[in-house]
Specification:
The chain is of the alpha/beta class and about 250 residues long. Helix content is about 35%, strand content about 20%. It binds ligand BV8.
């Protein structure tokens, strides 16, 4: 969609232009236009019979490490060939324009970093890294190791993706960064997330309760958001460039 045709509410434009501190939370939707399936999409092909919540757990990995590892290898291969889209790049433009910018992502695909975003807070880790299931040590380029799953070079235990599974705590530093940004920002924008997974899903509400202006960018309207939240319905790959163009024309 041509971003010239997107109408951005003036209130959001003014808010962004005047903001001293902006926090953004992204979900799978911002990577959809890079060709990566979201969790709400029907899982295609081999994985049509599984729900992400049934594979993204330590118990599933212990029960069938090969199946879980292959699911992540399939997703890692897709992420490795995906490229950032205009939505990712628009966030790097905002980062350069506002005094204080925090990018919180639920995504594990590494596309924000590839687009040039600095200091991305990975709330749920990254499938581009692996770690020893036993010791937790992060292992570099797991593609260089063979096996389903590959073995830890130190203890020969199985490697797992360096992501946060359901039922696992988020990294303390990421959670803390998210809490500080949510409490201190003037503007909190939730982009491309269904808001189904906690604790990330509560950040928008917490920001509103702390007095921030709040906005949602999504192809569908999100229910039960804080009163006064500006919702812009449209693909983030078009909406975000239009927002940047409206806030900082020329
Ligand atoms: C925790 C990494 C404390 C892995 C992910 C019972 C037992 C245990 C825990 C719980 C429980 N009940 C509830 C919980 C908490 C649980 C939870 O929330 N469960 C849900 C299912 C109810 N959370 C946890 O377990 C978290 N840890 O709470 O620790 C604890 C500890 C022990 C016991 C209790 C509590 C950990 C959660 C992290 C899980 N890991 N990812 C991996 O990727 O495989 S979650 C994963 O799913 C993503 O990271 C993301 O968070 C979520 C998917 O959500 P979205 O990103 O929003 O994607 P989705 O497809 O849903 O939506 C896409 C949106 O984009 C849509 O709205 C669509 O309209 C929009 N869109 C599409 N295209 C576009 C677009 N928008 C704009 N432009 C477009 N072009």
């Amino acid at each position: 969609m041509d971003h010239e045709k997107i109408i951005i509410p003036a209130a959001l434009v003014e808010c962004l232009r005047a903001a001293k501190s902006v926090a953004v939370l992204t979900g799978a939707g911002i990577s959809a236009e890079s060709g990566l399936p979201t969790f709400r999409d029907a899982m295609t092909g081999l994985w049509a019979n599984f729900r992400p919540e049934d594979l993204a757990t330590a118990r599933a990995f212990e029960r069938d490490p090969a199946l879980v590892w292959k699911w992540y290898a399939w997703r890692r291969d897709m992420a490795a060939t995906a490229t950032p889209n205009p939505g990712h790049y628009a966030l790097t433009a905002i980062e350069k324009r506002v005094p204080e910018f925090t990018l919180l992502t639920q995504n594990v695909d590494g596309l924000h970093q590839l687009a040039g975003s600095c200091d991305v807070v990975e709330l749920h880790g990254s499938i581009m890294r692996s770690r020893c299931f036993r010791e937790g040590t992060v292992v570099g380029d797991s593609d260089a190791l063979s096996g389903d799953p590959p073995r830890c070079p130190a203890c020969r235990g199985p490697l797992r993706p360096d992501v946060v599974w359901f039922g696992e705590n988020l990294p303390a530093d990421a959670l803390n960064r998210a809490a500080v940004a949510t409490q201190e920002c003037d503007l909190f924008i939730s982009i491309g997330t269904s808001g189904m997974v906690e604790p990330a899903a509560s950040l928008l509400r917490l920001a509103a309760e702390a007095g921030a202006h709040t906005a949602v960018i999504n192809v569908e309207r999100i229910a039960n958001v804080a009163p006064g939240t500006v919702q812009v319905i449209g693909p983030s790959g078009s909406v975000l460039p239009a927002l940047v163009a409206a806030a900082w024309p020329g």
